[in-house]
Fold each of these.
Amino acid sequence: MNTHFNVRRKVFRNRRGAGQDAANRDTRPAAPPPPQAPPDSIQTVLVDSLMHGEKEKMGACLVPGIRPALIDPGPANTADNVIGALGALGINRLDSIVLTHIHFDHAGGAGHLAERFPEATVYIHSRVARHLADPARLTESVRAVWGEQTEALFGLPMAVSEERIQRIDDGDTVDLGDRRLGVIATPGHTRGHLAYLDQETGSLFCGDALGVQLPGSQVIRPSTPPMDFCLDDAVKSIETIKSLKPESVYMSHFGQAAPGPEQACDQAIEAIRRWYESFLHKLEIAESDEDLRRRFHACLEATLEPVSPVTRRNLETVNPAWLNIEGMTGALERDTEHRAA
Ligand SMILES: [Zn+2]
């Protein structure tokens, strides 16, 4: 296998185009709608964070009840959009800010939301909780991936004070007052990735575990980013989600998985296997990093993703191919080192 060229370095040099348009868009909140009474149903409410100043890219989930919870507030620079939307929904108190994983597009706004809702506890996997209390090292590693676009795309996180952070893992629960959210370890996308199941409504919040599916298309693009993606874990986690037989699965990007939980899980497993196989095959025959990317993109268009150019452009802004290639490269390197050890 031809692995002697430096995929990672090449990828870095070419990443700029991916987020430039989005970074230049206005992310200021629109004028707030008039206030309403809090939801009287316990059904999930999808809150569009308007990531990158665009609709339907990143959705937070409000889980209403006696002790309302918000799952994955989104990036730091759209926290005001989410706070405004919660206000319009009549939510003046949040008990829990619940995070599927530490990535900036999911958890970056947690500190800002925690400041607005001082009674809220912030729940996150124990292995990454330290980054909430002190985001400096995490910010450094995000900058190493996204470069100078980092701040424009996501904003920068605010620290959450230690006493407000609840470290959780598989089998724990989040108290909603009248019911609980079950915590399910779903490593793969990241090692510290968690999903949550509302046992009363059957809604399951999967973060990025299934990948990305945008409105208007049922195609699922796998999400295989740096720094600790693992294919085998990702597949097992999707199988776990399927085995729980949820009523609905909420994907952070974006909304309820279509056509339904079971088919979406099957589709996500097939997609991520083909995605990784395709990466390995292109790596084998590619003559340079640029050639690898070109071949992978050609494969996306030809076979992996039968979507419109608009959908592909949207998938690229939310979950760019260069980022996924970099994540798979890292996974392959770890795998190779592991075998050699
Ligand atoms: Zn992620």
Amino acid sequence: MRKSIWAMSFFSLMVAGQCIAEPSGAAMREYEQAMEMTPDLENGRKVYRICAVCHTPEGWGLDSGAYPQVAGQLATVLIKQLADIRARNRDNPTMVPFTSPQLLGGAQEIADVAAYIAQLPMSPHNGVGPGIDLALGEQLYKDNCTECHGETGEGILDDHIPAIYGQHYRYLLRQFEWIKMERRRNADKKMVKQIHRFTHRDIRAVLDYVSRIKPPKEKLATEGWHNPDFPNFARPSTMHSGAGYMIDQRPTRPSRPR
Ligand code: HEC
Ligand code: HEC
């Protein structure tokens, strides 16, 4: 009797363990499959049509940080994030329906759209912070971030470490805080450790600094560039003014009606 109870609880532990391990396993498999594909840019452009609705045809997202700039991001990072979001290894309730196999496709389409996005020129005017604590920000960056994100925030292609230069300040802030409080499940454990002592002032200072690092000239779009692949896309005039759905103001937990 005793023995079977032991066996049963051991079994349920294993099942529970598998449920926890499963999402990242699925994401990893998809990442590896997509990495083996030869990307088709023309198909990537077609797939990107549904992404453009939120990330904008240029891939520049919004200053408000509601949607990140994806243009110019390293292809390996794009593939990993797509695989994680789709496997629910990174929560993104707004975007997850658009990553279904019916809409996005499989590993080939992930490789295609990642290659398309990676070659888009980046915004010359991303959202930046208040600019009041940049010396502290620079010091913190040099002491804590270069090892992984590179001297200028360019990331590391082979290790799928994100490029963070030129990203909207408010998006950086949200992701950094979610990584710090371990709300982003795919967070890098070493990064979490590295930043756990950061104060609010430190966080704002370092990310303001990062948002102001200009990507190399050849990665930036020229003034007034519009993506010619989407000539008929209706661009609301408010698009780059910081208006938009404020995802960071979403309540963390639904509250009970009073
Ligand atoms: C309905 C809006 C919406 C659509 C459509 C959408 N996304 Fe997103 N996407 C988002 C939001 C919101 C985030 C940021 C979520 C967060 O804050 O964690 C995001 C994040 C991302 C990220 C992570 C970026 C980073 O640096 O962390 C990638 C990559 C991405 N999207 C690619 C795509 C691709 C490719 C498509 C099309 C197949 C797509 N998205 C379609 C809303 C959307
Ligand atoms: C040990 C390596 C490491 C260190 C140190 C590190 N990071 Fe990261 N960081 C990562 C990895 C890896 C990711 C992506 C995790 C994933 O796969 O989703 C990441 C993600 C991020 C993101 C989210 C980017 C996006 O597009 O979603 C931000 C912002 C960020 N790091 C900022 C920083 C800053 C600022 C510092 C220094 C204070 C720092 N990181 C230190 C490895 C590191």
